[in-house]
């Protein structure tokens, strides 16, 4: 499958990629290396994995990372209750046969996402979501899985992959990932889409909304993204907002700043952003002006 | 046949390394692999392909297209000058790739292994050369080592390098702080799942309990940067250090001269507008440096409740205060009373104590000189 086919395939399943993303996905498949997607929340990192799985008709296995995630929840766990039950049965009832029973047999093993991903017959898509939220120890453990696609289980030995999954890791950049992990992955930064692509995305997701509404709303959001906001609205917010306007039976973009402001709770997700946006500022944005232009004087604090 | 391409990749990766990219043998192999797998008519995709391979973070991602263009298509860049010492390329990337594919088709040979071997050999010889150069470079030098140069003498171009080093320092401090074990008289909680697992060996009887491991938690770190006129020369640097701490250690950063303002969120966003925002924050603060007032504000308003016994407060200032001399000691006492450890980073080798700083010194755990990179690199040993 070449780059163009990936672009077409993703479009077919409802994800509009840009060329560099398609290239990164192609490369990830061609080289068999995991792809690390970084970007702000709400730019569609997780949806990429879902779309990829749908496109290839593969199973999507998702591992949601969080602080305190450990091996038992991510890779495998022994079914302790079953093991204990087996011991009790063995004690109570006479042995069925003289053969020793093995408590650490594969049948007592509970597969968690990582083990499941390398044990499926058909290759799957493994999504390791928000890796930056997990602990460093878990990140270190992940290196073996990502490099060799194998998991070492002390009681069983090394479980090698029966199929190599396509691995997608996502990160919001809340913590710096280790160099070792980064070097095992290909990297793609998922940025906010340009106006044309975002219009296409919205049209694809909200076929009922009119073109005029979509185009005006997306243009407005792009202006809003240039403002000094604490949380910049992502694609998910765009979709929510245009959907809300559509639900309010708006076929054209409202020119009343008060009405726009009322629906902007779909876009602005922090207290300070809400405070910053008044009807006057919305009018400014509609007129194509910047709201938060500041003229500073402090000496030489360039951090750019 | 593909030696031209290998040479091209090796030189390009060396160029990227010079620009702070971490590109090793495996990346070079992947770059070569990608070229071989890419149909010749899609050679334009090499740029995004290599971007996915060599970039490791957002900063690299943003800088890469320009570097690629500068290296492979310098004729398309207007108004730039060629740096002396860079390897001159005799051919274009498109020609090299096309040529390689043509020869591959013709020879139908075993390109990957041999080319990778070539790449390794070349890289190895390159590193040998570098090693030789290193050896040859020993002895007297007319150039000031950057690490020992005073921050006031740093050029704008050096500051980019400093960001990376500041991040390294922050990582080292982080490791050091995480490694330390706190003595606690609180009993650990029972790890039920672990206990159950261990009890399998004893037929289900929980003979040896497993305890929850204490979580490694970073102390709260607060960085206060003096941006008054007397610190003008160092403020830019110290803000970079503060940003590294914010990113790596979730520290909270503040700026002050006559007032105090929190800038953590601004520093976390790597945009060119940070300067604009900090300017806006400090605009109207007026002249002078009111360290004691700012510290009082810090402890009673901004971090009220967040300041705990494990907290670390780094004050980056020269200590010249226009408040009454005894006020600074009182303000620091308030912070120390909460159990926080105060470290004073001074932008000169020898701390020139002002009277107020002299009076406040009992509440400061350590004065740390931060006048050059070498002194900054000692930070991990000195903090805590």
Helix and strand topology:
The complex is a heterodimer of chains A (304) and B (384).
Chain A lengths: L2 H10 L6 H13 L3 E4 L6 H12 L3 E5 L6 H4 L1 E3 L1 H13 L16 E3 L1 H7 L5 E5 L6 H13 L1 E4 L3 E4 L5 E6 L7 H6 L1 E4 L5 H11 L5 H15 L9 H13 L9 H7 L7 H6 L2 H8 L18
Helix pairs in contact in A: 1-2, 1-3, 9-10, 10-11, 12-14
Chain B lengths: L2 H16 L6 H13 L8 H9 L3 H15 L20 H15 L3 H26 L19 H24 L12 H8 L21 E6 L5 H18 L2 E5 L3 E3 L1 H5 L5 H9 L8 H12 L9 E5 L8 H13 L3 E6 L8 H6 L5 E4 L3 H5 L1 H4 L2
Parallel strand pairs in B: 1-2, 1-4, 4-5, 5-6
Antiparallel strand pairs in B: 2-3
Helix pairs in contact in B: 1-6, 2-3, 2-6, 3-4, 7-9, 12-13
> What's the architecture of the largest domain in chain B, going by CATH?
3-Layer(aba) Sandwich
Largest interface: A-B, 47 and 58 residues
The coarse silhouette of chain B is flat
Main CATH class of the largest domain in chain A: Alpha Beta
Mean pLDDT of chain A: 84
Q: How many individual helices of chain A?
A: 14
Q: How many beta strands in the DSSP annotation of chain B?
A: 6
Q: What class would the helix/strand composition of chain B place it in?
A: alpha/beta
Radius of gyration of chain B: 27 Å
Q: CATH homologous superfamily of the largest domain in chain A? A: P-loop containing nucleotide triphosphate hydrolases
Strand order of the largest sheet of chain B: 3-2-1-4-5-6
Looking at CATH, the homologous superfamily of the largest domain in chain B is von Willebrand factor, type A domain
Note the gap between the termini of chain B.
58 Å
Low-confidence regions of chain A: 294-304
Number of domains of chain B: 3
- At the fold tier of CATH, the topology name of the largest domain in chain B is Rossmann fold
Describe the largest sheet of chain B.
6 strands, mixed
Largest sheet of chain A: 5 strands, parallel
């Amino acid at each position: 499958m070449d780059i163009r086919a990936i672009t077409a395939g993703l479009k077919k399943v409802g994800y509009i990629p840009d060329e560099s993303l398609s290239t990164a996905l192609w490369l990830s498949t061609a080289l068999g290396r995991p792809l690390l997607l970084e970007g702000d929340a709400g730019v569609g990192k997780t949806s990429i994995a879902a779309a990829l799985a749908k496109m290839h008709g593969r199973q999507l296995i998702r591992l949601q990372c969080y602080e305190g995630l450990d091996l038992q929840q991510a890779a495998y766990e022994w079914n302790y209750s079953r093991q204990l039950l087996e011991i009790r049965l063995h004690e109570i009832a006479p042995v069925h046969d003289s053969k020793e029973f093995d408590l650490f047999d594969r049948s007592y093993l509970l597969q968690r996402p990582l083990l499941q991903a390398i044990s499926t017959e058909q290759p799957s898509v493994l999504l390791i979501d928000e890796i930056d939220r997990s602990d460093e120890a878990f990140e270190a453990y992940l290196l073996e899985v990502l490099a060799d696609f194998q998991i070492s289980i002390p009681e069983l030995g090394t479980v090698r992959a029966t199929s190599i999954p396509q691995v997608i890791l996502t990160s919001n950049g809340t913590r710096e990932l280790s160099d070792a992990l980064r070097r095992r992955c290909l990297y793609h930064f998922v940025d906010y889409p340009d106006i044309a692509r975002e219009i296409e995305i919205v049209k694809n997701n909200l076929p009922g909304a009119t073109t005029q509404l979509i185009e005006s709303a997306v243009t407005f959001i792009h202006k809003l993204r240039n403002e000094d906001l604490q949380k910049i609205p992502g694609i998910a917010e765009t979709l929510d907002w245009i959907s809300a306007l559509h639900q309010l039976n708006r076929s054209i973009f409202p020119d009343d700043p008060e009405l726009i402001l009322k629906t902007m709770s779909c876009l602005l997700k922090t207290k300070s952003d809400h405070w910053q946006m008044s009807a006057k500022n919305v009018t400014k944005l509609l007129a194509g002006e910047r709201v938060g232009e500041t003229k500073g004087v402090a000496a030489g604090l360039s951090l750019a | 046949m593909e030696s031209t391409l290998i040479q091209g990749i090796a030189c390009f990766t060396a160029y990227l390394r010079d620009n702070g990219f971490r590109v090793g043998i495996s990346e070079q192999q992947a770059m070569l692999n990608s070229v071989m797998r890419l149909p010749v008519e899609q050679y334009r995709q090499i740029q995004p392909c290599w971007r996915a391979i060599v970039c490791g973070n957002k900063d690299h991602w943003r800088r890469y297209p320009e570097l690629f263009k500068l290296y492979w298509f310098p004729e398309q860049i207007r108004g730039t000058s060629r740096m002396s010492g860079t390897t001159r390329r005799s051919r274009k990337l498109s020609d090299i790739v096309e040529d390689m594919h043509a020869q591959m088709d013709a020879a139908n040979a075993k390109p990957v292994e041999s080319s990778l071997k070539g790449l390794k050999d070349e890289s190895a010889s390159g590193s040998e050369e570098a090693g030789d150069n290193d050896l040859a470079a020993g002895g007297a030098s007319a150039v000031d080592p950057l690490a020992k140069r005073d921050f006031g003498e740093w050029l704008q171009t050096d500051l980019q390098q400093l960001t990376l080093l500041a991040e390294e320092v922050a990582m080292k401090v982080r490791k050091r702080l995480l490694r330390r074990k706190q003595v606690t008289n609180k009993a650990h909680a029972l790890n039920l799942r672990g206990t159950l697992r261990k009890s399998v060996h004893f037929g289900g009887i929980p003979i040896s309990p497993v305890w929850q491991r204490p979580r490694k938690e970073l102390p709260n770190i607060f960085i206060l940067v003096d941006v008054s006129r007397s610190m003008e020369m160092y403020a830019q640097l110290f803000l970079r250090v503060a940003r590294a701490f914010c990113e790596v250690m979730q520290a909270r950063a503040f700026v002050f001269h006559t007032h105090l303002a929190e800038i953590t969120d601004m520093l976390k966003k790597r945009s060119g507008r940070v300067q604009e925002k900090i300017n806006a924050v400090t605009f109207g603060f007026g002249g002078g440096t009111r360290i004691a007032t700012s510290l009082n504000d810090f402890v009673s308003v901004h971090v009220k409740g967040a300041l705990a016994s494990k907290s670390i407060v780094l004050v980056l200032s020269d200590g010249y205060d226009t408040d009454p001399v005894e006020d600074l000691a009182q303000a620091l006492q308030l912070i120390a009373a909460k159990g926080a450890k105060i470290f004073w980073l001074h932008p000169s080798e020898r701390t020139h104590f002002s009277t107020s700083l002299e009076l406040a010194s009992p509440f400061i755990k350590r004065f740390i000189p931060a006048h050059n990179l070498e002194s900054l690199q000692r930070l991990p040993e000195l903090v805590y």
